[in-house]
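pinging the channel bc i need a second pair of eyes. not urgent but kinda urgent?? the chain im working w is below, pasted from the shared doc
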Amino acid sequence: MRIDILSLFSDMFVPVFSESIIKRSQKKGLIEIKIHNIRDFSVNKQKQVDDYPYGGGSGMVMMIEPIAACIEHLKSERTYDEVILMTPDGIVFNQMIANKYSTLNNIIIICGHYKGIDERVREMYVTSEISIGDYVLSGGELAAMIFCDTVIRLIPGVLNDETSALSDSFQNGLLAPPVYTRPAEFKGFKVPDILLSGNDKLIDQWRQEQSLERTRLKRPDLLD
């Protein structure tokens, strides 16, 4: 998968994408991530990327020309499955949506900033709008990082154990069951005996029951 990210603050991505699973996935050649500074595509000498909104009002609006120039440049080189805008008024991101995007080959992600982007960017280029929750961030960069991390770990070969992602919370519509490791007892708190039994069938049954119970207590809305 190739991910092209359009941002006014491209340096924000460097520390996040240079660590852990995302770093390893790039080294393996499973993921290619390119960050594009929208200012580099500005049409004037001042590298202007924002302007006052028509009709008045507070805040500044990201101009269409630099974003359009960047998208058209990228599209001249390859075909993209989706052009995604990270925006608080998009579809709320979840695990099922992440599964869908993990099967794509090439995507563009646009990170908004200021008061927002010129609406014509949505009308002319954007194919999907994604929100990570009902709140407002300073820009789409953090949202894009979360989106990428969630999607990339689902791609076959990214995780050392490919079955690990299948048992994550929300993957089957439920929260994940509790997990334990050594020592078997710590300050009087013991690992459930069933997990030490070696009986895979009973362990799977226990985990399913725990998932249901944890979901019922913490996120009953998922069961609805």
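so Residues 20 and 196 are 30 Å apart (CA to CA). and Residues 200-218 form the longest helix (19 residues). — does that match what u expected or am i reading it wrong
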